[in-house]
Amino acid sequence: MERLSVKSMTETNSGKVITIISGDLAALTRPLVFIPMVIAAPFVNLTAYAVLWKTSGIEFAFYTFCWWIFLLIGQHFTTEKQKTFKAKESGYNDERQKLVADMVTGAKTIKAYAWENHYIKKITSARKGQVRYVFAQMMIEAIGLAFFSNGGLIVLNNIFLMQWARGELLDPGVSMSLMAMIFYVFFGINMCVFMGLTVY
Predict the structure, then answer these.
(1) 89 CB contacts (<8 Å, ≥6 apart)?
(2) Label partner for 139 (CA 20 to 30 A): which of 58, 94, 112, 131?
(3) What pLDDT shows up at residue 185?
(4) Could you report the per-residue pLDDT of 63-87, keeping only the tens digit for each?
(5) Residue 7: pLDDT above 50?
(6) What are 165-183's pLDDT values in tens digits?
């Protein structure tokens, strides 16, 4: 049976333990919901490219593939930014939780030395820092998800415009195949994969 060293107990404050128990466990279990999508994604992608090649031509399959690569790069960038902000937000949250725990356990000592205002100011400052990074996370997530989830619609419009510019008559059957493969299946599956691989 392993025991915690004195060094590890002093380096890990009570606020960090509270944060791990309350929030981080949920963030770790979140990607498990999307495991089936992660497994299915490569097969769905290959099927989508094959159908696009067969129904519309290799140039549109290649165009969709390029857009997919572009979105993957964008997803990676937003994920890294979110992780950076999350790490900073967690630091402020750990400090705030520690201060609150100290106030609860040491209420008599704090009252005896009139340290209430000192603790309140430190807690308020930590909370403001935490909220600032939470807001930054939510803004990046909102903008990123809005762009990524509509990537299929952007690709569809561009393909239809390219066909129209070449004077091609849009066949209803082919157009429905494009809509199903690109918008509903292809980018939908990859969006779920992105959400599953994103651990905040």
Answers:
(1) 130, 133, 134, 137
(2) 94
(3) 65
(4) 888 888 888 788 788 888 888 888 8
(5) no
(6) 877 777 776 777 777 777 7
Q: Which residue type, as a one-letter code, is found at position 29?
A: T
Q: What residues have CB less than 8 Å from 194, skipping those under 6 apart? A: 75, 79, 148
Taking alpha carbons only, the member of 37, 39, 44 closest to residue 186 is 44
Q: Are 153 and 83 in contact (CB under 8 A)?
A: no
Instruction: Name the amino acid, one letter, at 193.
Output: V
Rg (CA), the chain: 25
How many angstroms separate the CA atoms of 48 and 55, rounded?
11
Q: Are 51 and 181 in contact (CB under 8 A)?
A: yes
For tokens 């949250």, what's the residue? 93
Cβ-contact 178, 55 below 8 angstroms? yes
- 114 Ramachandran zone, left/alpha/beta (phi>0; psi -120 to 50): left
**Angstrom distance (rounded) from CA 152 to CA 28:** 29
Burial class (CB in 10 A: 0-12, 13-18, 19+), 159: buried
Q: State the helix-helix crossing angle for 151-165 and 116-149, rounded to 10 degrees.
A: 30
